[in-house]
What we know:
The protein is of the alpha/beta class. Helix content is 56%, strand content 15%. It is built from twelve helices and ten strands. The strands form three sheets. It has a four-stranded mixed β-sheet with strand order 1-2-3-4. The chain has a three-stranded mixed β-sheet with strand order 5-6-7. Strand 6 and strand 7 (281-287) form a beta hairpin. Helix 3 runs antiparallel to helix 4 (139-158) and helix 5 (166-176) runs antiparallel to helix 6. It is globular and about 75 Å long.
Amino acid sequence: MKSSLKIGSVLGIPIRLHITFLLILPLIAFSFAEGPSPFGFSTISDPVLRYSLGTIAGILLFACVLVHEVAHSYVAIRNNIKISDITLYLFGGVSAMEEVPRNPGIEAKMAIVGPLTSIVIGLACGAILLATGIPTNTPLGIMIFLMTYLNILLGIFNILPAFPMDGGRVLRALLAMRMPYIQATRWAVFSGKMFAYLLGIIGLFMGLSGIWFIIIAFFIYVAAGEEERSTVTSVMLEGVKVRDIMSKTVDTVDSGASVSSTLQTMFQKKHLGYPVIEGGRLAGIVTLSDVSKVPEAARDTTVVRDIMTRNVITLKPDDDATIALQQISQRKVGRLVVMDGDRMAGIISRTDLVRAIELHGALSRQ
């Protein structure tokens, strides 16, 4: 089952809703519907209207989060950094960059524009409230006040120097001007984890109302660790080419081979995916997942060309190994075919990448 659903695109970037967004929206709608004025609509007696307004407020909040992320992405695109997608999660949005900006100045600009955008949205909503004189005890007044308060809060929270929040990324950019990038990342991650500990402790002392602090602290701690591992991996693969770590001996299967014989090949060779050759050329990829979908009774009569994936993701020998890592991670595949023109030059797997990272780490410790 897919964990996210595409709902559209902005600036050519796919916008996705993660399943956690669908889980949190009813809770946010409930909190807005039952919250005291001007932080909620509890003074409205009609429950249908109250919960409808709470739901609208929740959707508007995530729309503001989306604008926050689009601001990050716009600056990234202006600096020739590709964004593969923007996903709205349980506690906000994430712009998935195809590469981490190593220029501290660019990273600082990308990071700071998000919180500033949120604060500007909040101030604009506040200005509307003041200019129009709409009472904050009316449905419209409450809605505008919520957008004012929450956007300013979102901006201030994200600007805190705790990685991987935007302020933590600014901190890493500043540190990277004075020390190696990995070291700067580790210090920024340390600040994020310390902030998560502090937030969690505060949540424990708040009782039941502090459960959100604890949950947010958990997500910040986990995200900081994941970011550290991702950064270290990318830096260790810098300068490494696909040709340096790919396997040049490639086991293939013929497009006319039966599914049952292909399954036997998988058992013998211990690989779960194979390039498919047809007329001496690469025609597709067949994996254990493809084979498993064929009923056992039909495996002798079904051939590989009927079940293989024809849209093959390939790399070139001179591509950076970081590109292979990105493709394998983003597309959730185990192996990629390496093509030198029309000739199959090799295959690169997740294992090849892990081995290269381990060897680089061992050499750096000597």
